[in-house]
Amino acid sequence: MHPILVGPLATAGFSAFLALVISLLDGKLNDYGTVNVTINGGKKKLPVRGGSPLLGTLAGEEIFLPSACGGRGSCGACKCVVTSDVGPYLPTETPYISAEEVSRKIRLACQIKVKKDIEIEIPESLFSIKRFEASVGRVRDLTYDIKEVRFDLRNPSSIDFMPGQYVQLAVPKYGDITESVQRAYSMSSVPGDPGNVELLVRLVPGGIATTWVHKFMKTGDVVQLIGPFGDFQVHDTPSTMVCVAGGSGMAPFKSMFNDMRARDSFPGKEIWFFFGARSTRDMFYLDELRKLEKEWPRFHFVPALSEPKPEEGWNGEIGLITNVLDSHLSAKISAGKPREGYLCGSPGMIDACIKVMTKNGIDPRDIFYDKFA
Ligand SMILES: Cc1cc2nc3c(=O)[nH]c(=O)nc-3n(C[C@H](O)[C@H](O)[C@H](O)COP(=O)(O)OP(=O)(O)OC[C@H]3O[C@@H](n4cnc5c(N)ncnc54)[C@H](O)[C@@H]3O)c2cc1C
Ligand code: FES
Questions:
Q1: Which of 83, 138, 213, 221 could cross-link with 150 by S-S, CB 3.0 to 4.6 Å?
Q2: How many A from CA of 132 to the centre of ligand 1?
Q3: Stretch among 10-24, 153-167, 220-234, 276-290 having the lowest mean pLDDT
Q4: 143 CA → ligand 2 middle, Å
């Protein structure tokens, strides 16, 4: 390790250790008893046991706020308005909360503890989010590091969602992992098949949830899925959809395109789908998407490889997906017609694509995305 990193890492490690000790001592020394969580001006009033983070306290009452990191304070998804006094903002909250959000009393629900009566405001739509018991059905390798996993919903036995939305997968304890964790995964299945949820899961080396999915999970295992969450979905406008994905970012687009095709929805909308990968071993669903392009006149598929080897015999676009997108936006996708951007994948890819899209005249307000971070 570079010597310059030792000091900051030691300080960060010590702060995290101190926070853990304080939290453990707090739990041991203080009994907060029963406190009330009042939601949306009294529409719901929940007597709960005090002392736990708001996110988990609400989940214990079957009210689920969005969360992509499972409560670690690293995604910023669990925002809610807290109108009563819960103390100053914590250093773990401030990176995710803007000045404007401070003025609206927005907090991170996984970071604030319920120690006394608390008043919060959340969107009514969150009341319809459910916890599903599901069993692992068919599992397929799409590439060396992406699996397509189908879950059969058992209780409740069907899910109502919009293509583009995600669920939280609760991964059980395994091996050295002593606590269940939750992570967000976009659904690649369609609402027309409500008894099943399909996810595309890319292995993150050392990642808790993805290691379980790739190395431990077996057909028949029972898990919990919570959802649906998110507002990444097709907008009902006449604009051309310019969609870009990399890796498992394919998932929400598979759901959107299959649903649009099955129901012939948004009939005036033309669709361009750019999918970027490094080499053919990272490419998947190629035959399916090329077939879809042949059968569905308003759908255009542009797969691109950034580092194909000559022996791979690749006959598609070559280059970084941002360059391929740029050349198509400036030459082939008419600027005379309104266009909107849909992006899904790593934060780096999304930020780079937003730059290309805005440079080519797409209004930033018409660019929608889900960052897999
Ligand atoms: C809205 C939303 C939808 C998502 N949908 C999908 C999906 O459909 N398919 C999918 O595969 N993933 C998806 N993700 C990402 C997913 O939620 C997890 O973050 C990811 O699978 C890693 O989880 P893990 O527990 O294995 O890794 P962790 O144990 O959380 O992380 C281990 C280490 O890897 C790093 N890391 C975490 N994620 C990544 C990453 N993606 N690439 C590189 N390093 C990483 C972390 O910083 C950490 O150092 C989505 C995320 C969001 C926010
Ligand atoms: S759940 Fe991720 S920051 Fe709160």
A1: 138
A2: 21
A3: 10-24
A4: 30
Amino acid at 50: G
What is the CATH superfamily name and number for domain 32-126?
Beta-grasp domain (3.10.20.30)
Whole-number Å distance between alpha carbons of 12 and 214: 31
Closest by Cα among 220, 209, 137 to 173: 209
In the chain, list all ranges with CATH 3.40.50.80.
240-371
Q: Which CATH architecture has domain 130-229?
A: Beta Barrel (2.40)
Measured distance CA(365)–CA(5) in Å, rounded: 39
Q: Is 352 in the pocket of ligand 2 (CB under 6 A)?
A: no
The whole-number pLDDT of residue 4 equals 45
Ranges assigned E (strand) in 142-263: 146-155, 166-171, 181-186, 196-202, 222-229, 240-246
Residues of the chain with CATH 3.10.20.30: 32-126
Closest ligand (CA of 214): 1
Q: Pick the more confident residue, 204 or 13.
A: 204
- Structure-token pair, residue 219: 């057909």
19, containing H or E segment: helix 3-29
What architecture is domain 240-371? 3-Layer(aba) Sandwich (3.40)
pLDDT in tens, 98-139: 999 999 999 999 999 999 999 999 999 899 899 999 999 999
Position 352, amino acid: A
pLDDT of residue 336: 82
Residue extent(s) of CATH 2.40.30.10 domains in the chain? 130-229
Cβ of 198 closer than 6 Å to ligand 1, yes or no, is no
Per-residue pLDDT of 227-268, as tens digits, reads 999 999 999 999 999 999 999 999 999 999 999 999 999 998
Cβ(113) to ligand 1 under 6 A? no
